[in-house]
Amino acid sequence: MTQPIIRFEGVSKAFGTQTVLRDFSLDVEPGAFVSIIGRSGCGKTTVLKLVNGLLSPDTGRVLIQGQDVARIDPVALRRRIGYAIQNVGLFPHMTVEKNIAYVPAISGMEEWKGKQCREKVAALLKQVGLDPALAGRYPRALSGGQRQRVGIARALAAGPELLLMDEPFGAVDEITRGQLQDELLRIHRESGITVLFVTHDIAEALKLGTRTLVMDAGQIQQYDAPSRLLAHPATSFVERLVRRSRVFQTRA
Ligand SMILES: Nc1ncnc2c1ncn2[C@@H]1O[C@H](COP(=O)(O)OP(=O)(O)OP(=O)(O)O)[C@@H](O)[C@H]1O
């Protein structure tokens, strides 16, 4: 494999007396779409937060393109990594435009000033399937699905290499969820960005991932193409998980 874009090297992480990750190692190849699934509390969000530096490992290292996350300047890290979470976390007192332009603005990106900023926001809104006319609205005047799309646009704004998504579609109805999934697949195909996507939904994990990471109790049960998960579950845990899925269409 070419140099992994993300590498976990023997990472352990505990909160107090609770060990969440134990000697966790993982390589993610550039351009992969990794769907991460496992029981509540198994450490999925912890994995994402170790990548974007919101948490630090107790032992081991997390590398992005060979660089230790602990040594990357936090502002640069924020530019390189988009983060989208359930319920979005948009700033309520800022318009859609200001929300989307937030990371580029705090990073002082020159091309995000004045008219150019408006053009960039309009292009991003179109990319996530929204009407650019929404740029002047406040989050409270958007539907849940629209807010979710704005959250994705914001995560993509600074042109990151990596997109971390933590159950981003958990709070929307089935139809909107299907549309958001399809748009995300298109964005992934067109941009070649690497995505780590946490979900509780095995059908979603199999539909979206080029690779699926199944975790249990802070350890990797299987890290494989979805079709291999279905055909060759590595553990009884994975077998039970995929047996529950009635969807047999996978991406890879
Ligand atoms: N800051 C923290 N302080 C103490 N415990 C924490 C902290 N963050 C996470 N934990 C604990 O670590 C464990 C793993 O949390 P994490 O959020 O990674 O799980 P998860 O797999 O994403 O769960 P869910 O699917 O419910 O979102 C949980 O038991 C959680 O309570």
TrEMBL record:
Which key words tag this protein in UniProt? ATP-binding, Nucleotide-binding, Transport
Q: What is its EC number?
A: 7.6.2.9
What sequence ranges are listed for the domain ABC transporter?
A: 6-242
Top EC class per UniProt?
translocase
User: Listed GO molecular functions?
Assistant: ABC-type quaternary ammonium compound transporting activity; ATP binding; ATP hydrolysis activity
Xref: Gene3D superfamilies: P-loop containing nucleotide triphosphate hydrolases (3.40.50.300)
Pfam families with a match to the protein in the record? ABC_tran
Q: Does the keyword Nucleus apply?
A: no
InterPro entries xref list: AAA+_ATPase, ABC_transporter-like_ATP-bd, ABC_transporter-like_CS, P-loop_NTPase
Q: Which family does it belong to?
A: Belongs to the ABC transporter superfamily.
| Name the record gives this protein | ABC-type quaternary amine transporter
- Organism from which the protein derives: Dysosmobacter welbionis
